[in-house]
């Protein structure tokens, strides 16, 4: 009798479970008409055996499961976008302004469009120029000051002022200032290597309005369009003293794009000629960042700097410093901050990580946290911004050196103050203040913050996780 009762109970539980599963399937189908239609079509296939129909309906369930996973991932991505790091810019944050077979121009979206936290640099813009071998960038000008940094490759730059053109060769590491409104053209003088240039746009010295990074192209006709085509036919005829028909033929003749390949003879013909004038021309020539000794250098990395105090650099009057950090693979910079300068950092080589302390973003889950850790994975082509006063650190991966070109705005009287290394602000505190602040003997505090190396240190990825598990 007991055995019969157990069998009846087991049968009842099996029936209840089957009914529950059936209801779950029905409710799932009711929630998603697509899966209901899919299974209905499986059942209506006359050529299918019962086994085939069951396999077909299982595939409908699998499709439904995968669809739900995709929707969940999409929702997670959207949540990440909404809570996106306001200080890090990825490839999607660049707008392609010019795109031809022989080169392209990428422009970073306006800083203040990303976040109000970047309003201190809202008047600045960053552009990247890539030009293939022996290609020519048509003459153009900007209504902004342009600071060119030649990241990679060999170029010729021609600058026009009133009645003459001055030409200069550009090498990797060269800095060149192009005053606002100056017509210029560029040539990749290497036949095989791509030319790669980063350009910071900033308001003219007499203005403070945001830059728009739109180029004004002087030559051209309908494609590319010349700025002259915006004027009426009567105005052009009077200004150029040329009949309408001749002007139309002239503008219609130019059909090349804004960046296009030229012959080897043309490249050689555009090369700068040696000047015999002892005082130079109207423009300051390029200044190579590697001309200066590195500000910090050891086996773990090096930092080169060119600032507004160096007249030859062309950065005088601009309150701007340009730096290049080369962090050895598996190493890191110290944790430091700029006292005055806002750093616009462009990763040109390698990959690594970035961390920064920010008081403006609070952790949602904790009301006790005073600072938010901003972090991001870095790779070539990315940009990150570090406002003045914000402590930060950059780390290179174990695979490659991490090379970062930085435009530091508001650089006059700026200091780099470190938290660790041979010279750091904690060790520099007077003994009594140190002991009062840390409630720890001054000698013990110095043991923690002092070290023989300065500015660049070895770094082991995963140390934080290992310590957390210990």
Automatic annotation (TrEMBL):
Q: Cupin type-1 domain location, by residue?
A: 87-248, 287-446
Gene3D superfamilies according to UniProt? Jelly Rolls
Encoding gene per record: LOC101499776
Q: Write out the coiled-coil annotation as residue ranges.
A: none
Q: Which domain of life is it from?
A: Eukaryota
Against InterPro entries, the record matches this protein to: Cupin_1, RmlC-like_jellyroll, RmlC_Cupin_sf, Seed_Storage-Functional
Record key words, sorted: Signal
Entry protein name: Sucrose-binding protein-like
The residue range of the signal peptide is: 1-27
Q: What Pfam families does this protein map onto?
A: Cupin_1
């Amino acid at each position: 009798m007991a055995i019969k009762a157990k069998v009846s109970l087991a049968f009842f539980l099996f029936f209840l479970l089957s009914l529950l599963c059936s209801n779950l399937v029905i409710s799932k189908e009711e929630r998603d008409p697509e899966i209901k239609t899919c299974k209905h079509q499986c059942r209506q296939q006359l050529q299918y055996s019962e086994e085939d129909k069951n396999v077909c309906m299982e595939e409908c369930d699998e499709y439904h499961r995968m669809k739900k996973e995709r929707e969940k991932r999409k929702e997670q991505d959207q949540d990440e976008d909404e809570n996106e790091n306001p200080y890090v810019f990825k490839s999607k944050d660049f707008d392609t302004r010019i795109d031809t077979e022989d080169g392209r121009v990428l422009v970073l979206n306006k800083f203040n469009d990303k976040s109000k936290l970047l309003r201190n640099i809202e008047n600045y813009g960053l552009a990247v120029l890539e030009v293939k071998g022996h290609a020519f960038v048509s003459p153009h000008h900007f209504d902004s000051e342009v600071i060119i940094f030649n990241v990679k490759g060999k170029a010729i730059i021609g600058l026009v002022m009133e009645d003459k053109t001055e030409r200069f060769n550009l090498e990797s590491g060269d800095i060149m200032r192009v005053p606002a409104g100056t017509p210029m053209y560029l040539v990749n003088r290497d036949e095989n290597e791509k030319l790669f240039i980063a350009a910071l746009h900033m308001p003219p010295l007499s203005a403070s309005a945001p830059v728009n990074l739109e180029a004004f192209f002087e030559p051209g006709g309908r494609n590319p369009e010349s700025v002259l085509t915006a004027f009426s036919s009567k105005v052009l005829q009077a200004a150029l003293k040329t009949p309408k028909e001749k002007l139309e033929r002239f503008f219609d003749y130019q059909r090349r794009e804004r960046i296009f390949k030229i012959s080897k003879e043309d490249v050689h013909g555009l090369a700068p000629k040696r000047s015999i004038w002892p005082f130079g021309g109207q423009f300051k020539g390029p200044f190579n960042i590697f001309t200066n000794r590195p500000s910090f250098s050891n086996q773990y990395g090096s930092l080169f700097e060119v600032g507004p105090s160096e007249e030859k650099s062309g950065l005088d009057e601009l309150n701007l410093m340009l730096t290049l950090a080369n962090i050895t693979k598996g190493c890191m910079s110290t944790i430091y901050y700029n006292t005055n300068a806002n750093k616009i950092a462009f990763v040109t080589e390698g990959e690594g990580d970035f961390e920064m302390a920010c008081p403006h973003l609070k952790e949602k889950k904790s009301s006790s946290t005073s600072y938010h850790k901003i972090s991001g994975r870095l790779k070539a082509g990315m940009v990150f911004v570090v406002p003045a006063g914000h402590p930060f650190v950059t780390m290179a991966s174990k695979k490659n050196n991490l090379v970062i070109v930085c435009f530091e705005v508001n650089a006059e009287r700026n200091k780099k103050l470190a938290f660790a290394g041979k010279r750091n602000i904690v060790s520099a505190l007077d003994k009594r203040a140190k002991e009062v602040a840390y409630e720890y003997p001054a000698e013990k505090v110095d043991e923690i913050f002092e070290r023989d190396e300065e500015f660049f240190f070895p770094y082991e990825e995963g140390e934080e996780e290992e310590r957390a598990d210990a």
